[in-house]
């Protein structure tokens, strides 16, 4: 009897077991194996040898890797804040009652439904110099600037990539903010109004604190998504010209395809750390903030 | 409190134990499937499934037709085609993960060294193969044949005969004449791109290195010892990083063309399709490609047939000769780990039947590698022979598998994007990348 009660009281522990198992099987186990491979000079064919931290040391002396880290950070630092700011603004505007609201929301959200790969190819054909859609458009408007090769220049190519990413996923961010906005009880605003708070004040003291959960989700998914960017780059520039728009995740794949399995796994570990650390810091910060509020 | 911790620890240990169990299981898992495979072989009249893995985009439809024919003629065997754009890389993942195709068009020296392919030396078809092609199909290290080619392909400069006639130009064999030709096109026909480069596709740029830069090495050393030099990475013979060496010279020449505005403005973002389109519609006077391009050109504009000219690459360095690629094409190899080698050989035999080779050759518009096949393979027949006699014949390069033509092409993109301050820097970077990849598989 006593045992049964004990079991009953600890049932929640057993309920979590399948989840823990799956987590272990599909996350912890591959991660552990990955760490193992990252410490070898495996080339995917002959037997790997243990090389300690050599791959990680190599990483810090690898000019191409440095460039890829820069590109990845540029992309993330460019995309994540823009996505959040514009996503939030769109949500604020489209939360107001007006005719055709559903349609406008759908239009903003639509690009997110299409695969970034396809989106990339579409934009590629828009942006091609001399024969792209944009060129013909600008030409017909007698604005003869369409001839420049946006994607053939390393700097402009990165900016174009950020722009397309923001344009594509701003709808996704917006939807999550909209959900947050709609969960705010109207009474709060009424109370604020009585206390004499204007739009800006109620935005700052009511809206933002109340959508903090949405901020959390959006910031975290945007950090993860933009740091592990892959498809849009593959479709639009293939990492080029040269390696100038290559992201770390593309580098990982190419090293894996080449004969550098061990090294590629080590780079994957670095990228993992690059993603998990900012997410961790942000979560600590926002949880503290939330507590204060 | 302490008890709770102990409980957590215990459940943690239990989880680890379970994980270890799972790990063991997953490592064993290939076994049941392989035993199933052998059961299939011995079992009566089970359909054997063969996987044909290819990276040749131009032959996908043709192969599907041939496969259909084979499947009809051979009940009990079913061939399936898998095409991958990045096949030479994807096959590595397939080898690593045990998802191994039975027959493939992807043959790399590293995989030959690893014993990934079946020895085909004693197959009956060898006497029918052109001797030069048989030599190119022979592994330098073991002297055996692990691959067979169905065709001879050639690559060089394709030019628009009409434009050449109009401007009174002649095929150029030296670099100065070549540049003068391009300049004439630029001056007299401002709307026409003198030479169109498809730089978004890194393989076409990789080919430029393979044919022009490596061409110097290949003509200096001859077929056999240049192949050995590439395969064994004999750096004293390759001289990759030498000033005025093959790579440095190549880089200088390419930059010369770019600086003089003789290549298309969008050389870094133009695709292979753009290149074909521009050439077939007369918007580009010259392109560097292989014969695989001809069929597509004729698809774009069927009347173009009589206007296609073909010449060797001009010599890019003083004291060297013009070169033309003339090499084995459409290679097939059977994997050593194939569970159905007999059936795979049967399929290979089918592909090598004279009538199927004829179909293939006529489709590809490139000459057959088999002596008993007479095919009407296309408009370049006479010109190809002339090109072969006016240039040194060179073969494809055996690159380390970690430094494919695509990788080399990306470096050429960097060069064109102005990311190397001098051509020698490019040459040094090229050697570094080559050495690194070579060392990764030779240790």
From TrEMBL, chain A:
<keyword id="KW-1003">Cell membrane</keyword>
<keyword id="KW-0472">Membrane</keyword>
<feature type="transmembrane region" description="Helical">
    <location>
        <begin position="256"/>
        <end position="283"/>
    </location>
</feature>
<keyword id="KW-1133">Transmembrane helix</keyword>
<feature type="domain" description="ABC transmembrane type-1">
    <location>
        <begin position="69"/>
        <end position="282"/>
    </location>
</feature>
<dbReference type="InterPro" id="IPR051393">
    <property type="entry name" value="ABC_transporter_permease"/>
</dbReference>
<dbReference type="InterPro" id="IPR035906">
    <property type="entry name" value="MetI-like_sf"/>
</dbReference>
<dbReference type="GO" id="GO:0055085">
    <property type="term" value="P:transmembrane transport"/>
</dbReference>
<protein>
    <submittedName>
        <fullName>Raffinose/stachyose/melibiose transport system permease protein</fullName>
    </submittedName>
</protein>
<feature type="transmembrane region" description="Helical">
    <location>
        <begin position="73"/>
        <end position="94"/>
    </location>
</feature>
<keyword id="KW-0812">Transmembrane</keyword>
<feature type="transmembrane region" description="Helical">
    <location>
        <begin position="157"/>
        <end position="179"/>
    </location>
</feature>
<feature type="transmembrane region" description="Helical">
    <location>
        <begin position="12"/>
        <end position="32"/>
    </location>
</feature>
<dbReference type="GO" id="GO:0005886">
    <property type="term" value="C:plasma membrane"/>
</dbReference>
<dbReference type="Pfam" id="PF00528">
    <property type="entry name" value="BPD_transp_1"/>
</dbReference>
<keyword id="KW-0813">Transport</keyword>
<feature type="transmembrane region" description="Helical">
    <location>
        <begin position="106"/>
        <end position="126"/>
    </location>
</feature>
<dbReference type="InterPro" id="IPR000515">
    <property type="entry name" value="MetI-like"/>
</dbReference>
<comment type="similarity">
    <text>Belongs to the binding-protein-dependent transport system permease family.</text>
</comment>
From TrEMBL, chain B:
<keyword id="KW-1003">Cell membrane</keyword>
<feature type="signal peptide">
    <location>
        <begin position="1"/>
        <end position="20"/>
    </location>
</feature>
<dbReference type="InterPro" id="IPR050490">
    <property type="entry name" value="Bact_solute-bd_prot1"/>
</dbReference>
<keyword id="KW-0449">Lipoprotein</keyword>
<dbReference type="Pfam" id="PF01547">
    <property type="entry name" value="SBP_bac_1"/>
</dbReference>
<keyword id="KW-0732">Signal</keyword>
<keyword id="KW-0564">Palmitate</keyword>
<protein>
    <submittedName>
        <fullName>Extracellular solute-binding protein</fullName>
    </submittedName>
</protein>
<keyword id="KW-0472">Membrane</keyword>
<dbReference type="InterPro" id="IPR006059">
    <property type="entry name" value="SBP"/>
</dbReference>
